[in-house]
Amino acid sequence: MKRYLSAWCNTSPTALIAHSAIAAVFVMVLLATGSAGAEPTPRAPSKIASLGGDITEIIYALGASELIVAIDSTSQYPTEALKSKKNVGYLRALSTEGVLATGATQIIASDRAGPPEVVVALKAASIPYREIEDKNDPQGVANKIRNVGNLIERRMQANDLAEKVLSKFATVEKARSQIKDKRRAIFVIGVRNGRATVAGRGTSADAMITLSGAVNAAGGIEGFKPVTDEQLVELAPDVVIVMNQSDPRHDAVGEAKSLQGLRSSPALTHNRFLGVDGLYMIGFGPRAPDAASDLMRALYPEQSSLLTTLRP
């Protein structure tokens, strides 16, 4: 014992510091792993409340649907989501209690979620609230996919899907460059009391119209706004895109055709009314480039060169 104490006392200060540092690292490793040779405790998988149809679609596309315990009512694709997951209601009309009661351990939400006071309350809750930016352009969709993939630890799958989506958007852009005379279109969200609500600039519908090679005839309007018959006459669209309703008995296209303000429009003269699925067309999830491709085909069916470029 004296021999060891003597050796220790005769050790230089520099060597003592080095030994102390090594010991400290060793202790940190033991604390991190539990004990030498022990297996680390596996982390329990997240239970996700997925708020936003695009968010839910991404998680399903990444093969992680089993992580979802709750969705909102805009999560209509895949159709099994609404059938098998708890529904917390409409994305913009959430309740704090309703979301927290799902037992989720993580909330992944579109930045369109609301109302604002509920979002503030959810962010202050004890479970993580992850907000995903909703940008309606090709890079925005790719970023959205990668961000969700990072949160659910599906980074490789997310990167592969994002690259595939960007490649499809590039094909759509190539086809769009071939369009000479762009048609003027309006996107009708719905008709109520004889007045149509149309999508103006800055909306997801406006972005999709542009991506598909048309011009938004309602681009002088900001956001989603109801318009009068007089305004519809002035818009004089070549094409009217109509969002189909969830009730299949509701003839949304027929309702739009009956609007007085469209009676003299080129769209009615040439019978260019297109019924579309809302989430598919303006949800800007992984299927967004396919939606742009399909809309372009419908807008310009007579242009065979476009059909060749867009052929899968």
Show the helix and strand layout.
Blueprint: H1 2-9, H2 13-33, E1 48-51, H3 53-61, E2 68-71, H4 79-84, E3 86-87, H5 96-100, E4 106-110, H6 116-123, E5 129-132, H7 138-151, H8 155-176, E6 184-192, E7 195-199, H9 204-211, E8 215-216, E9 224-227, H10 229-235, E10 239-243, H11 252-257, H12 266-269, E11 273-276, H13 278-282, H14 288-299, H15 304-310
Parallel strand pairs: 1-2, 1-4, 2-3, 4-5, 6-8, 6-10, 10-11
Antiparallel strand pairs: 6-7, 7-9
Structure description:
By secondary structure, this protein is α/β, with parallel strands linked by helices. The model is unreliable at 1-9 and 13-42 (pLDDT under 50). The strands form two sheets. Strands 6, 7, 8, 9, 10 and 11 form a six-stranded mixed β-sheet that branches. A five-stranded parallel β-sheet has the order 3-2-1-4-5. It is built from 15 helices and eleven strands. It folds into two domains: 48-174, Rossmann fold (3-Layer(aba) Sandwich); 181-310, Rossmann fold, CATH 3.40.50. Strand 4, helix 6 (116-123) and strand 5 (129-132) form a beta-alpha-beta unit. The chain has helices at residues 2-9, 13-33, 53-61, 79-84, 96-100, 116-123, 138-151, 155-176, 204-211, 229-235, 252-257, 266-269, 278-282, 288-299, 304-310; strands at residues 48-51, 68-71, 86-87, 106-110, 129-132, 184-192, 195-199, 215-216, 224-227, 239-243, 273-276. The chain is 46% helix and 15% strand.
